[in-house]
Structures are given as C-alpha cells and as structure tokens.
C-alpha cells in the first residue's frame, strides 16, 4: 500500500511537471523564434527527436498497412498542428497561445461526435460554451475579433482534437507501441517542415543552422524543447496515466494554460489584463468541466 501511495504521488508530481513544461514551451518557442525561423525550428526540434527515437521504428515491421496509413495521417495532422501553433505563437502573445490551445479539450467531444458518432453530454456542451466565452474575453479583451495569431492557435486546437479522434480510431486495435508512433510523427513533422522551408526559400525560412559557438542560448532553447517538452513530457504522461485517476489527471493537466500565462508574464514581460485572466480562467474551468468524470467522482465521494 505504501509503495502504491508513493507511485501515486510520483505520478501526480510528474503530471504537474508536464503541465509546467508544456505551459512554459510557448514562451520558450517565442524566444527561440528570435534566432531562427518557424520552419527551421520545427525541423530541428523534431529532427533531433526523430533521431533519438529511431530505435523504436523497428516495431513498424509488425504493423499492418491500415495501422501504418493511420500513423502517417496522424503525423501529417501533427505537422499541421505545429505549423499553425508555431506561426501563431510568432504572431500573438505566448499567454494567449497557452490558453487558446487548451480549447482542444472541449473541441474533442464535438469532433468525436462527428467522426466516432458519440454525442456530447450536457456537461460537455456547457464546457464548450464556457470555453468559447473565455476565448472571446482572452484573445479580444472584450472585442469581437481575434488577431491572425489567435486564429492560427484556434485552428491548431481544432487539429489537436481531430488528431486525438483519428489516432483513437486507427490505433484502437493496434499493438504498436506509443513510442513508435511518436517516432513516426516526429519524422513526418521534421521532414515536412524542412520540405516546406525549401519550397518557400524566398520567405527566408531556409537558413543556415546557427553554430554552437555564439548561439548557446538558442541551442539551450532547442534542447529544452526536445528533452523536456517532447521526450520527457510524453514519457511522464504515459507513466502517470496508468497510475492516476481521470480526475487527478484532468485537474493537474488543466493547469497548463495557467503556467503558460504566468511564464509569459515573467519571462517575456507580457502584460495580461484582468479581462484576459478571467477569460483564461474560464477556459481552464471548461477543460476541467469537460474531462472530469463527475458521476464517478460523486460515487467515490459517497462511498468515502
């Protein structure tokens, strides 16, 4: 029993660390983009990740054609997510990006209804409405418009929701390890970003890689994105989900946008208005409302 409690505490701490890491990633990406363009940064980040995870590709020889096709589609969707997300971060505040990307939690039930024919519950509909109100307050500070960066982040959130549902449909009966899937997706994002950068060379997206000498700050950002925001985050999330209840997972991961906004305020000096904080809080609340299994929670409280 003591060992289980320690593992539960460790998993909680790891989930909280993932929320912190992913929350800070928006500010780190925005800082890295000062040194290197969007497509080049994506190619570097996911190219290094692909090389590190390449040993996991050996499991692909056991996968059937349907699974491989689905993993490839998921990789293409992930490429779209990071293109929208990173260009969006370039054009909007890191705090906005951190809050708006969490809309994927409440968009997922709608996409799932469309693709997997599961109708959203009343609580999920309420979460959608709450998150839309929060997004309106956050990105517009009460105005009836989003800037182009906010629109790209919202598109990235929609693509995230679509990716979750597509991956669920394809991998439902597959025994392919998640690490192998991550390796393929990283490769698709890396090669896709490099190819796009090569096509749009006139837009200065294809540049020489910064040298280690004289660009240590940039490489520190890249190392953080690869090691912390990709490799550690995926491992920690998989480790924790196996040992934590859905309620714990939802509450801890739901804090990601808050960490992102605080980090953007401290690291980048972004000014966040009271209205924007209220909008961000509504999005976090909507994420919790949409993901916590309230019926199971009420049952556990009644039995306590």
Automatic annotation (TrEMBL):
- Database matches in InterPro entries: Diverse_Substrate_Transporter, EamA_dom, EmrE-like
- A Pfam family (short name) is EamA
This chain belongs to the protein called: EamA family transporter
Location comes to:
Cell membrane
Question: Keyword set for this entry?
Answer: Cell membrane, Membrane, Transmembrane, Transmembrane helix
Regarding the membrane, this protein is recorded as: Multi-pass membrane protein
User: Can the keyword Transmembrane be found in this entry's annotation?
Assistant: yes
- According to the entry, every stretch annotated as the EamA domain falls at 11-138, 148-290
């Amino acid at each position: 029993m003591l060992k289980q409690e320690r593992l539960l505490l460790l998993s909680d701490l790891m989930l909280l660390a993932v929320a912190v890491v992913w929350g800070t990633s928006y500010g780190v990406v925005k800082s890295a983009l000062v040194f290197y363009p969007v497509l080049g940064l994506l190619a570097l980040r996911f190219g290094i990740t692909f090389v590190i995870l390449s040993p996991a590709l050996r499991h692909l020889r056991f996968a059937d054609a349907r699974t491989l096709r689905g993993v490839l589609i998921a990789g293409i969707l992930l490429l779209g997510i990071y293109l929208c997300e990173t260009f969006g971060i370039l054009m909007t505040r890191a705090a906005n990006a951190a809050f708006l990307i969490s809309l994927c939690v409440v968009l997922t039930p709608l996409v799932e209804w469309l693709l997997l024919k599961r109708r959203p519950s009343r609580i999920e509909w309420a979460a959608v409405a709450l998150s839309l109100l929060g997004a309106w307050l956050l990105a517009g500070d009460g105005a009836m418009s989003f800037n182009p960066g906010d629109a790209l982040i919202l598109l990235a959130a929609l693509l995230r929701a679509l990716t979750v549902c597509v991956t669920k449909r394809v991998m439902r009966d597959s025994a392919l390890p998640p690490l192998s899937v991550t390796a393929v997706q990283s490769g698709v994002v890396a090669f896709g970003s490099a190819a796009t950068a090569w096509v749009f060379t006139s837009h200065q997206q294809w540049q020489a890689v910064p040298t280690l000498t004289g660009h240590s700050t940039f490489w520190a950002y890249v190392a953080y994105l690869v090691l912390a925001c990709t490799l550690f985050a995926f491992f920690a999330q998989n480790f924790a989900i196996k040992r934590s209840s859905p309620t714990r997972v939802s509450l801890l991961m739901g804090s990601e946008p808050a960490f992102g906004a605080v980090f953007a305020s401290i690291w980048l000096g972004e000014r966040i208005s009271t209205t924007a904080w209220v909008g961000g809080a509504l999005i976090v609340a909507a994420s919790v409302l949409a993901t916590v299994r309230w019926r199971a929670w009420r049952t556990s409280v009644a039995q306590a």
